[in-house]
Amino acid sequence: MTSYETRTTTGGAVVLRPEGRLNMVAAPAMREQLHKLVESGSTKIVIDLSATDFIDSSGLGALISGLKVARQAGGDLRIAAPSTQVESVLSLTNLNRVLRSHPSADSAFDAD
To answer: Which positions fall inside the STAS domain (predicted)?
Structure first.
């Protein structure tokens, strides 16, 4: 199973960075990794989409699933640096209202 690179920001948020296509093949692994991060106590999560060049409904579902479990645990999930294609899909589905994008993973939780 695919596992995505993670790191922790100075503010304590865990950053997960999927690369390439976030589609029906890759999305289940990301969903599982997000759930495991929350189960292990990480409730501030940032998805760095700077290396994601394509997302489909399965990828969106994984993001929403991660958002839901993070919020249920008292935290939040935010996205950072989405590509033009990802930004377009978020806009077309109106998910940009729920998943607001931030310029970088390190600044995603700065306003808090």
So the answer is: 3-112
In tens, the pLDDT along 21-79 reads: 999 999 999 999 999 999 999 999 999 999 999 999 999 999 999 999 999 999 999 99
- Spatial strand order of the sheet with 44-48 comes to 5-8, 14-17, 44-48, 76-80, 101-102
Q: Report the CATH number of the 3-106 domain.
A: 3.30.750.24
Q: How far does Cα 109 stand from its chain's mean position?
A: 13
* Cβ pair 15, 46 in contact under 8 A: yes
Please give the model's pTM, rounded to 2 decimal places: 0.94
